[in-house]
Every structure is written in structure tokens, then in C-alpha cells.
Amino acid sequence: xxxxxxxxxxxxxxxxxxxxxxxxxxxxxxxxxxxxxxxxxxxxxxxxxxxxxxxxxxxxxxxxxxxxxxxxxxxxxxxxxxxxxxxxxxxxxxxxxxxxxxxxxxxxxxxxxxxxxxxxxxxxxxxxxxxxxxxxxxxxxxxxxxxxxxxxxxxxxxxxxxxxxxxxxxxxxxxxxxxxxxxxxxxxxxxxxxxxxxxxxxxxxxxxxxxxxxxxxxxxxxxxxxxxxxxxxxxxxxxxxxxxxxxxxxxxxxxxxxxxxxxxxxxxxxxxxxxxxxxxxxxxxxxxxxxxxxxxxxxxxxxxxxxxxxxxxxxxxxxxxxxxxxxxxxxxxxxxxxxxxxxxxxxxxxxxxxxxxxxxxxxxxxxxxxxxxxxxxxxxxxxxxxxxxxxxxxxxxxxxxxxxxxxxxxxxxxxxxxxxxxxxxxxxxxxxxxxxxxxxxxxxxxxxxxxxxxxxxxxxxxxxxxxxxxxxxxxxxxxxxxxxxxxxxxxxxxxxxxxxxxxxxxxxxxxxxxxxxxxxxxxxxxxxxxxxxxxxxxxxxxxxxxxxxxxxxxxxxxxxxxxxxxxxxxxxxxxxxxxxxxxxxxxxxxxxxxxxxxxxxxxxxxxxxxxxxxxxxxxxxxxxxxxxxxxxxxxxxxxxxxxxxxxxxxxxxxxxxxxxxxxxxxxxxxxxxxxxxxxxxxxxxxxxxxxxxxxxxxxxxxxxxxxxxxxxxxxxxxxxxxxxxxxxxxxxxxxxxxxxxxxxxxxxxxxxxxxxxxxxxxxxxxxxxxxxx
Length: 773
Prior knowledge:
The protein is an alpha/beta fold. Helix 4 (138-155) packs antiparallel against helix 13, helix 6 packs across helix 7 (217-226) and helix 22 packs across helix 25.
């Protein structure tokens, strides 16, 4: 489905792609049975061993300080985890180190902050420290302690220099901004940014006040409100760093810069603003214009659902008007945001993403994969080929004829050309990715020889069970015994595809969402006979392709499309009950969906949407697919109204404009049976409750392993409002009992399709939550 791509364009951009701090992963109950009497407790973790100082290692989060003959103290971050992060413990130890070895040491003429880990400066604050603070107002004092430390660094009145190699994100970038000079490596792994907005937060260690002093107001607001990273070359042009040097030289150049700053031969130069930027940023009239534009942008992109952007704006405006209290206001605003349900939801998504990064089949379970064959060069196949080739794997792209292969290769080239133009890809990587793709056809004499070395085959052909079984038979006769066959089917059970196969243990589902390069989710669907090795290999290939992988049970529709089935039926039901198309779109957007269901159907394709709804209507969902009339879309297919791709669906598309034509209006009016005058809230609740109930039923039936998988799947696969955290976190926020009562009311009013599943009723009776925090 295409909804996830649209999510990335809406709200706070990439609201669930956060700084890469590796947290301690909490263990969730493996199953949630439909009885409130069962209590599944999380296992008690043994506390980590306490750090014991030794002569060769006095600190847990820092290497021993190195002093140069010129009096430069080199302080290298080197925490116990794979990445450096700013935790409360690290902050306390930093204060101790500074007080004991720097503050009163007259021999220290300058300080260089570097890292003992390759490709890693500081990835951000440890967000799970934040989760552990029950009363978020306590964060004000904790942040103040950190700010006092940064101020004590400045009070030493010696040059402070940062050697940045690898990510400097969140609190890591804020640390650098308290220093006088910043030297960054030109490594592709070096990136700088303040992504706190993606967690519903703001930069709390002075970032809202210090960034605009370096890069200007407009650049600073763009970085903080989108949370996007900047690369070293752009950071240099903006004034965020002073030098960009080779990775091998970053620390030595930083040390020499510290020496030159100390003896006065080097003076930091702040980037001069252009005349236009001075007119805009340095006078009240210009600032008013900037704030008006920013306000419009934030309202358009967040629809008022995300409080963090507004708090960031407030902090910057307050600081400009009230310099004496700028940092105090910033930490107070941070604490307020930390207590919001939106931040809790976004942090929950981040936590879930982290949990989805690993499988539990063992470190050596996966087979090595070097060559992946993709069957079908259409939109899906070409997209799968693109994300595979970009990661260095050889791709065999096979279709009927050279014309089909050419279209697939043109699609990939177009996407790579855009990346190259936007500097998201180097020319070298563009060439490598292009060379990784080998086009093959049925009559190409090289095809058998190429397939003989395939480690995995991913089919992306039409949704026809007989065709897919034929491909399985052909592949098993032409590939090595270890070769995995993965089907990209969107709904057909994998066991049905594997029926009659010689190597059923090697068959699995890998359900990508369209367009593949943009969509973050991958559903992995084993059937009962799939081996653990095949599961692990599919997971690792998907992860390498940049996907967030969820393992789901082999049932019709799997998880995401199974939840969309009742959703789509209810959309037709509310149209039948008199809700106009534009009002329907508006209602779901106001709930927090990135696009409304009418636009969604047009974007995905009326034919595709109708196929999914029709397939699930004949599957095993029973009464849960009742209540509507999917012939609304079926009849449109006969008229050629296939959605945006044909220029006509529910909306008529001309250029960038979309309207509802009189012909469509008349068609929909003929479908309406009654006008119930439904309120916007009732429209939202009717449609969303069908969606959420099916997600809960999937949990009840072990289709998904736990609520975290359920939340990640629907946020990443359908765009379920990120600020609500997914269906299960949303249920926790509104109260399961309240939701069950509402659904019972709908069941009485509209029919048994609204009857809440047993799991929801059990949780309501026991007043349970799906998430512990």
C-alpha cells in the first residue's frame, strides 16, 4: 500500500525515524491470550555490573584523558554501549571528570572533545533515561545540572574544540555548540542534527538558543522543526562546523586548532549573513515575516496534532525577547513536552523500531545472500530490485521481454538520478548500484546460468495462485538447493503457494508496500513448514534493504491488509449513510491520518483496493467484513475509474489539482441509501474502530506477536497517526473499557460487525493496558 509514503510527507517529517541510540530492549510477553485472568509479567533483569575504576580506565563513559605537550587535554567519549549517548550517569561522570582533572588544572590550556569509538561521536541523549522519570517536572532540575556543567566548561575560559567523526545528533550536537570550534570529518557516516521533534520533544541542552546564533534563524528553524540531518559539507556552508577534513585527520586537526586558538594565531570566524538574511533575521519586521511563514508551514504539516514544533518556536521567540531566562524557559518547555501523550507515543514507536531490528533465530541462523533474483520488473519488482542493488547485492531482474526490463531499469535510474541531484547519492554509488542489476528475459540464453547462482528469489508478479505455483516449480528446478523463494503476495496465504513444492522449508512471504523505495515496512510471513534459517535470512535481507521487518502469521491478508479490510468496508458504509467524499477525507485527516480513505483508494488504485477488499470478504473474517458494500469500487473499475494512475477515480486529476466531477458525484449519490447526518467524530470512530478491532483480533489470534509489532505495523504500513503511537497505544490512552463501550453502542445501532473482539472485552473487564509505559 502507498499510505506509508504519504506519511513521510505529512506531520513532522519522518516522525518516527529517530536518533540511533541503542537502548536496553525490554522483553515483551510473547503472546496475549484472550482472557483477562492471565497475567504475563516481564522477566526481571539482572542489574548491569557496576563499573570499577582501574589505572588504565578511570571512567566508565570516557577514556583516560590524554595531555599533549602543548597543554591540550583530549577527552574521548567511550561509553559501555556500541554507541555513545548522553545518559544521566554519563552526565554525572562528565562533571566529576571536569572538576577533578580540568577545572582547577592550570596546565590545561585547551580541551578537545573526541571519541574513542570509530565512526561515532555522540548519537544523542539516552531517551530511555527520560522514560524512567515518572514525574516529568523532575527533568527540569536534571537538565539544569547538565546546563551547569556546560556553563562550567565555558567558565574555564580556555578554547574548547570538538573533533566530530560519525553522528553528532541531539544532545551530541548541543554539546558541540557549547564549544568554540568544530572540526568534522568528511566521512559519509558523519551527520549533524537535532531530531528531538521526531520524539515529540525539543533540544533541551541549549539547542533552541545556540543553533540560530551559528547558522541563522531560518536554517536553525528548518533543522529543528524537521529534525533532518545535515552532512559535513553543508554544515560547513551553514556555519555549523568550522572545518571539514579527512576522517583520518579529524582529531589531529582539532588538536592543532586548539593549540592555535590558545596561542591566538587562530580566531573562530562566524559565517556572515547575506544582505537578504540580515534584512529578514536581524530586524523585527523581517522576523515577523519569517514567523508567519513558519507558522503556516507547521499548521499545514502537523494539522495541530504535534505540540513539539510550537514549543520549539516558543523557545526561540522567548529567547530572542528574554535572553536572561532563555535556558530556563527551554528546560521548562522540554519537561512539558515530555509529559504529553504525543511524546509518549512517538518514543514508543522509536522503542518499537529498535526492538524490530533483531530476530530471535540465533546469530548464525541466516544463510549468506549475495545474489537476489527478482521476478517481475513492474513497479513492485523494480522497487525491490532498487533497494537490493543499493545495498551492494547482485540483482537478477527478470521479466517477459526487453521492453518490460527496460521500464523497470528506467524506473530505478530515475530514482537514482533524483538522489544524485539531491546529493543523497554519490556518482560512484549511482554507478555501482546500476551495475549491480542484470536484466534477464525468458529467452535470454544467460538466464539459466545466472539463476544457478541465486541465493534468494523474490517474485513480484500478478496475484494469481496458479502463476505463483508455476514460478515456484520453475525456480526449484533452476536454482541451488539452498535458494530461498519469497513471494511478495499481498494477501494469498503462503502455505497455498508452497503446496506441492519440493523445498517448502525454503518458501516464505516477503510483503513489501508500494512504492518500495519509500515505504519502511516489510511483512515477513512464514508458513508452518518454513525453516528458521529461511525466516532469519528473509529478516536479514529485509533489514539490509532498509526495511523495518515484522514477522506475522500466514493468514489471508496477513496483518496490515487484514486490518484494512474492515476499514475499507466501513468507508463504503459511511458513504452509503450520506457522508460526502471530501468530508470523509477531512474527518480521517483530522483524526491524524496523513491522507483520507478516499484519497488513499485513488493513490493505491481503485482496482488494487477493490481486489484486497473483495479477497478478504471471501476469506475467514466472517461478520467483521459486513456492514458495507464494496461494489462501490467494483463498479468503478468497469468505468475505467482506476484512481490517480488513470486520471480519474473518486477524484479527477489534472496536474496537481484534484476535484470531484459531476459524473462521480452523481454515481456516489446513487449509492447513498440514507443521510444520517453523521458528525465528524462518529465518522472517525466508526471507521477507526473497525481498524483497531481487527488489529486486536490479530493479537488475540497470534497473527502478530505482541502490541509493539501491531503498533509498528499499522504506523509504518498504513500511516496510523504517529502521534497516537499505533492502535494499541491509542487504546491505552483512551481506555480500553471506554472503547469497548463505544463499540457496543455501535453494534446496537449498526450491527454485529462492531462487536469488539474477546481480547478487548477481557482487557476492558480487567482494566488492563497493552503497554506498561
